[in-house]
UniProtKB/TrEMBL annotation:
InterPro entries: ATPase_NBD, ROK. It comes from the Bacteria. NCBIfam families: PolPhglucPhase. Residues 1-21 have a biased composition (Polar residues). Belongs to the ROK (NagC/XylR) family. Residues 1-23 are annotated as: Disordered. This is Polyphosphate glucokinase.
C-alpha cells in the first residue's frame, strides 16, 4: 500500500531537480517504507512508499518486502537499509520487533540476493536517524558530539562526532541507578505507569545526566513519537546539555539509509 503521509517535496519552486540522489529503506516492526532522497537537501523526492512488515518477519520475507519497495520506484542504483537491531561485520546480532531468525544472518548476502547483487549498506535504524538529523535536521552545523535518543518502546541511541557515526551504541540498555535506562525513561514506561510529564522527565533527566557524564555531548536530539509533544516535556528537563526535538521525524530512517549507502558505509 502507498503511504501518503509525506507530502511531495520535489522542486516546488520550479528549480532544476537535484541529480545527487540516493535511496533508503527503513524496516520497522509494522512497516517497511522507502523512497528516493535528495542528498543535497535531505528531502524525499516525491512520496515515500510503504508495505506492511510480514508476519512472521523472517529475513527472506522482510527482504522480499524491501525489494518490493525498491521496485515500486524502478530504482536500479545502490540501496541503504535500516534494521531494528545491531549489525556488526555484516552480521545481525540482535533483533527487536522482528523474527529472532535474524540473529546470525549475513545481511549483505541476504539483501544482495534479493536486490540482484546491487550495492547495499545496512545499519541500525537509530544510527540512520541520527545521521540524518545530524546532517540535515536538528544537529546541522553543530560541532562536536551530538546524540540522538529515540523515546519509544525502548530508548534508541546514535552518537555522532563531527558528523562521523559511532555505530551500535545501544545506550538504552545502559544501567542508570538500579535499572536499564529504557526500563525507567522510555515513552512506553510513562504510558504504562500513567506518569505525568513532570514525573517522567525526572527519570529522563537522570538518564541524560548519566550520558552527559560519560560523553559530554554538545546537543541531545529527542526523537520518537513523543518528540511531537516536545513543548510539553523538554522544558521540564533539568540536565545541563541542550535538548531539542528531532526535525525529520518519520523520514529520518529513509534519509539516513540513503546517506549511508552513498558514503559506502558498512557496519
Amino acid at each position: 500500500m502507498t503511504d501518503t503521509s509525506v507530502p511531495e517535496s520535489s522542486d516546488p519552486d520550479g528549480s532544476t531537480p537535484s541529480t545527487n540522489l540516493g535511496f533508503g529503506v527503513d524496516v520497522g516492526g509494522s512497516g517497511i517504507k522507502g523512497g528516493i532522497v535528495d542528498l543535497d537537501s535531505g528531502e524525499l523526492v516525491g512520496e515515500r512508499f510503504k508495505v506492511l512488515t510480514p508476519q512472521p518477519a523472517t529475513p527472506d520475507a522482510v527482504a522480499d518486502g524491501v525489494a518490493e519497495v525498491v521496485a515500486h520506484f524502478d530504482w536500479t542504483g545502490p540501496v541503504g537499509i535500516t534494521l531494528p537491531g545491531v549489525v556488526t561485520d555484516g552480521i545481525m546480532r540482535t533483533a527487536a520487533n522482528i523474527d529472532k531468525a535474524w540473529i546470525g544472518t549475513d545481511v549483505y548476502e541476504l539483501f544482495s540476493k534479493h536486490l540482484d547483487g546491487r550495492q547495499v549498506s545496512v545499519l541500525n535504524d537509530a544510527d540512520a536517524a541520527g545521521m540524518a538529523e545530524d546532517a540535515y535536521g536538528a544537529g546541522k552545523d553543530v560541532a562536536g558530539v551530538v546524540m540522538l535518543l529515540t523515546f519509544g518502546t525502548g530508548i534508541g541511541s546514535a552518537i555522532l562526532i563531527d558528523g562521523t557515526l559511532v555505530p551500535n551504541t545501544e545506550l538504552g540498555h545502559l544501567q542508570v541507578g538500579k535499572k536499564e535506562a529504557e526500563h525507567q525513561a522510555s515513552s512506553r514506561v510513562r504510558e504504562e505507569k500513567g506518569w505525568s510529564y513532570e514525573k517522567w522527565t525526572e527519570k529522563v533527566s537522570e538518564v541524560l545526566e548519566t550520558y552527559e557524564a560519560l560523553f559530554w555531548p554538545k546537543l541531545f536530539i529527542a526523537g520518537g513519537g513523543i518528540s511531537r509533544k516536545s513543548d510539553k516535556w523538554i522544558p521540564l528537563l533539568t540536565n545541563k546539555t541542550p535538548v531539542v526535538p528531532a526535525v525529520l521525524l518519520n523520514t529520518a530512517g529513509i534519509v539516513g539509509a540513503a546517506m549511508a549507502v552513498s558514503r559506502g558505509l558498512k557496519t
